[in-house]
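Pilot study result, target chain (468 residues):
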Amino acid sequence: MATVAFHTLGCKVNFYDTEAIWQLFKQEGYEQVDFESTADVYVVNTCTVTNTGDKKSRQMIRRAIRRNPEAIVAVTGCYAQTSPAEIMAIPGVDLVIGTQDRDKIMPYVKQLEQERQPINAVRNIMKTRAFEELDVPDFSDRTRAFLKIQEGCNNFCTFCIIPWSRGLMRSREPQSVLNQARMLVDAGYQEIVLTGIHTGGYGEDMEDYSLAKLLWDLDKVDGLKRIRISSIEASQITDEVLEVLQASDKMCRHLHIPLQAGDDEVLKRMRRKYTTEQFARKIEHIHRIMPGVAITTDVIVGFPGETDEMFRRGYQFMEQMKFSEMHVFPYSKRTGTPAARMEDQIDEEIKNARVHELIDLSERMQLSYAETFVGQVLEVIPERDYKGQPGSGLLMGYSDNYLQLVFEGSEDWIGQVCRVKVTEAGVNECRGQLVRAPEAGAVHLPSRVTGTDASAETIPGQAAKAIV
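Predicted structure:
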């Protein structure tokens, strides 16, 4: 049986895309093996959000070629889209396919089996207007299902290369989203995470349809317990979206709203489309209608021209916002973006000192948010044994408001809703005590094995748009 191995760099959208490509290989009878073992085909799904992303992508491509010089090596993703010639120049690369046309990967692989002539299949992404339909009916080793609802971004923030690697905003057809949601529920998933490059922009390119309408339609999907939005810009949380958040008991009390900077001058230089005052008004409104909501965010530190005074103002603003967690990234130059050409680049040491200050602030805010739930009973969907300790009798999972809870329970409950009382607050994880086990007869997720790289949960080095 032919074998395929995957390595995913970058964000959750890449993680989704890798799973979609795996489905295509699976339909052709391939078996998935670990990336570190010998495979017939290697697929490297690359990241280009930072210069480091490019470098790591090249390292993984070379690793695959060394592992089996006879194998077909296919490179996809953002770095493949922006720099195909650079990748084609690596001896041993057979196929470069960017962030579109991945549904054609199998015919290309078959062509390469016949004649080993390297193929550059990358086209101009800026001309693409249609969402690439790639279904993922189930996920390797996951209890939360990701559902990609849009692609691309029209924002062109000055620090970000993503519109050039992913193209402009395009939404997935509503019927297609709902069909896949039902497929995922039938496969046993109780939580769906809506994801995309600029997820909250869903529907902006459609007539008479919007993110709010999609959320209402998903609310009606039988058997679905939780809907989570992976990331949404403050400006995209419209009154209609707020109505769904307030009225639907399936919407998670957790929103990831990228701030990027807490100072108006820095926001302007970043070309972000809001002021701190507008951002604060939206956050206050959300807290009003969703008491106990967890609001997480992304922050870039040391953006060109950020003075100490601007940083201090930003720090105070973040403190005031009472985020439940912040993902803090030092600004890193991305070749080809306006910010990389700006004067007043900040010294690395100053950047690192500021990053540490904000990480400390984030941990204090995380703890004080978690402390408000001690003694409360929350619904938790266990994801796995605690820290991968099988047989320890401890499970780990997330509540709807994104507290990571560790509690005693049975492995049979993984993927099922448990009611857990929070007994002890912590920064990254809280302790809890089971109050009610899942009901008997619930659908179980099949156990899965995968070679897909789990690092797909994070973005290396810097916040890239709304991908987290």
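One observation from the pilot: The two ends are 36 Å apart (CA to CA). A full batch analysis is planned for the follow-on phase.
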